[in-house]
Design a protein that fits this description.
The protein is mainly alpha-helical and 182 residues long. It has nine helices and no strands. Helix 1 runs parallel beside helix 6, helix 4 packs across helix 5 and helix 5 packs antiparallel against helix 6. It is globular.
């Protein structure tokens, strides 16, 4: 039910094109069209030095996600919007899982997750392809917290803790805005 509600909420965005930063980050970005630029994605800012104002956005995994979308969809905006919807659905499921672990009840967890799924504050992050850094970071952070909680409550502490640590760093990379010197 959570997946269906989330998908239906943003289904109308699948026909949208690229807007604002999407044009620079996807449509006219030669870096995403060839995996030989993968190393450059980890050495430069999100805009690859093309704009001075955005030079503090170090988000290599966001660029990697565009590369993967380009590999599947080319420059068809449908696929990029679908990826954002699927990322948001993942976040909704993680909110549900975390609330269920914290509060114990499925009803409350479902209500919180449904509210998160349809809340308008998420609109920019889901409908705007360049906003994908937000759901990617949130999924990484919530996934890391969920794995940490599992490791603290279970006998499989070692495996869950390693999962927590491996999820923690991508979450930081996805949303790091502190900048990186060139």
């Amino acid at each position: 039910m959570l997946f269906v509600v989330t998908t239906l909420t943003y289904w109308n965005t699948l026909g949208n094109g690229f807007v604002w930063d999407d044009e620079v980050l996807v449509n006219s970005n030669s870096y995403i069209r060839n995996f030989s630029y993968l190393g450059a994605a980890f050495r430069t800012d999100l805009f690859h030095g093309r704009t001075v104002s955005a030079a503090t956005h170090y988000r290599p995994l966001q660029t990697l996600s565009y590369m993967l979308d380009y590999m599947v969809w080319g420059l068809n905006p449908f696929g990029y919007h679908l990826t954002n919807i699927l990322l948001h659905a993942l976040c909704v499921l993680l909110v549900y899982a975390m609330c269920q672990r914290l509060f114990g009840g499925k009803g409350l967890a479902c209500a919180v997750a449904l509210l998160f799924a349809v809340h308008p504050i998420n609109t920019n992050a889901i409908t705007y392809v360049a906003g994908r850094a937000d759901p990617m970071a949130f999924a990484g952070m919530l996934g890391a917290l969920l794995l940490l909680d599992i490791s603290q409550r279970s006998y499989q502490r070692g495996a869950a803790f390693l999962g927590h640590m491996s999820a923690r760093w991508p979450a930081i990379w996805w949303r790091c805005s502190a900048g990186k010197a060139h």
